[in-house]
């Protein structure tokens, strides 16, 4: 009785033809003991002895069938054509006549081990493989049809064979199975990252599920040993038809890490896994692998739209499964679910309403959510909520004078306006519960600001009755800005004065931060009378509208008028100081095709002429609603601004960004507010005649250039006299009357004598950053910033309090300097460094850590770059450098280091840093 016929595929046939190519020179019939696989090609061409031969394969189960096949071949075959007959009939039954026509005059026996050795080009086979018939048959069946198996020099090991089989069966290679990651230069890495990505491919899991049971079992076992405990769980899910949902299930199963998880939750999760529910250790490994892979995908998704879609395809599916299974409420603490992020965002705002400390704790949890990097705008709203909570916990502020009110607006309350604007706009994700919490916090903040606006308006009315450019009573008025804030810069080169029509303090703060990130240094007059250095701000002309304020700014005197008045006044002022000047309005700025700026403007910038440029983007947007809800502004949002800054840098010009007036936004009606139907209203925010109503004040004086020197203006932001627009100006609120002035230099040599640098840390109110001692924060900033010569002289004139603050700051720096050294000397850091190509020097990373610790954990990118420069290493691309250090410090994706505040600051989580790199040994139990 003949042995059971083995399965024979095309590759086996080709191997036998190659092995007996000499015999095929004389004969063209090949008899093989076996059964040809259904679906395998019956006709194909293959190379035999380096010549193409056409091959026909027939599978016959009887002597008559074999004989008929041979006769058919003789009648129809061409020269050189080969007939291969697979059969289970033994030689004795076939007879000598038929066998005499075949090569070797007998039926060939298939030796799978020999054929596998040949197909891999190996010299021998791992001895363990001889007893693994399933593997040998699988290798013969699965051989890639295009290039065959990869050639092996020497012994074919079991691991090599299983790896090749797994790659082909799962479709991970670049052959007919395709690849998860596209074309590859070499074989893919068989790790959990690769396998989880494979599970998201359309046909990947199905390919595995269709394999024979023995093969699936052995591949799961081998991949478990190779890729870890997560691999068998994933493949079991693929077997059960759940492969495409595997990652989503892994996200949900993370809740089972909690020992206190409710039994009902565990049962529900088990139901989602069906018959595949693994043991605790394997499930833990699987959820860890899923979260690790998602963390890496999230990092890629920050710059890749396809990666972002990949991440949310998994997480949205996880949310769907949770909702269907009734787990949505239970999983609100998930580190990856979008609904979990929304829930944590809502908790953060709710906690901030309770107290800033509670809000900070919740915000730290939100920052640790796996999706925080993909929702920077939503995280920023939470940060603003916590900041407003801190501000509301500060002692109740008050306006003592017009000068103090203007100073407080530019140094403190303007920051509150910036935060309140984001709270008013709501959660960008549209979560209604979060929106209600934000509204409650916003209303508390606006109530405080309204009190300040009323106080300021009353002081403004009294001050305006006798104030003018010669007697400003300690305040900087807009008509003196050119003399006070611009003229001192002319000694280092003709300045560029950019008038940003309608720029409020909240907007100016954003421009200052972005300009600093791009290498500009803000400089201000040195502090006097014991005050600290601060950003400059002026009082607008009244009413705070373009016709009065911009003309007075550019003419350097109280005057009203249009563009001709502005241009003439600007030239006249600089002519008095022996300088040529040119002013460019909207129609004169844009260049011809291929040129961002006009030839006339570029020519002026290239000369010694003082150049003024008026940019109307903000005012136009408020008038026409082009900025939507108007929550944020950047340099790119202002037409021509970036081109002007670039040209100024190229020509060595210092730059002054100055407003002519601020603005308030249309935020809808509130109780007691309505559009005023006033016939004498010439503007949305000022009028003449009629009684003074609630929320208004009458102002008279020489600096009131409309209404015959007397106007009625609202200090409440929700009062308007004309049709609804996106925003308004002309009133008496701090946001409208305060004129921010940003003086920027590209190099320290452009700093005027007696002026000092103003790094972001020093211009930021303490409550805006984490609740840390402001002196340490400022001292750290001053240690890395300073104006050449002038800053040092000014620092020496600081009062005793300031001196002690710097001493305290230096002590903090010395005390914490060792943390960076300890981290870079740790075993964990050494292991992390192995995965980072061209890692920065250890001393540079240590400096980064120590500088951030000394600054309270948060620094602006420019301040951090300055700290790094102290090591002798200049980092021009600070964002790229921080990204590299993140790869060193963010172990397993935990956010030790990262950007916050929409990329305007770098934050170090010091407790998490210690936990990851310098863990404390657990106390021994008694």
Tell me about this structure:
The chain starts with 6 loop residues before the first strand and ends in a 9-residue tail after the last helix. It is built from 38 helices and 26 strands. A hairpin with a 2-residue loop joins strand 4 and strand 5 (51-60). 47% of the residues lie in helices and 11% in strands. The strands form eight sheets. Strands 10, 11, 12, 13, 14, 15, 22 and 23 form an eight-stranded mixed β-sheet that branches. A five-stranded mixed β-sheet has the order 4-5-6-2-7, with helices on both faces. With 926 residues, it is an alpha/beta fold. Helix 18 (376-393) crosses helix 19 (402-425), helix 19 packs across helix 22 (505-517) and helix 23 (546-555) runs parallel beside helix 24 (563-576). The chain is elongated and about 130 Å long.
Which of globular, elongated, flat, extended, rod-shaped describes the shape?
elongated
Residues in β-strands, percent: 5-15%
Overall pLDDT:
86
Largest sheet, described in full? 8 strands, mixed
List segments where confidence is low: pLDDT < 50 over at least 5 consecutive residues: 175-185, 670-676, 771-817
Q: What is the helical fraction, as a range of percent?
A: 40-55%
- Strand element count: 26
* Tally of helical runs: 38
Rg for CA atoms: 38 Å
Distance from N terminus to C terminus (CA atoms, Å) equals 74 Å
User: Which class best fits the helix and strand makeup?
Assistant: alpha/beta
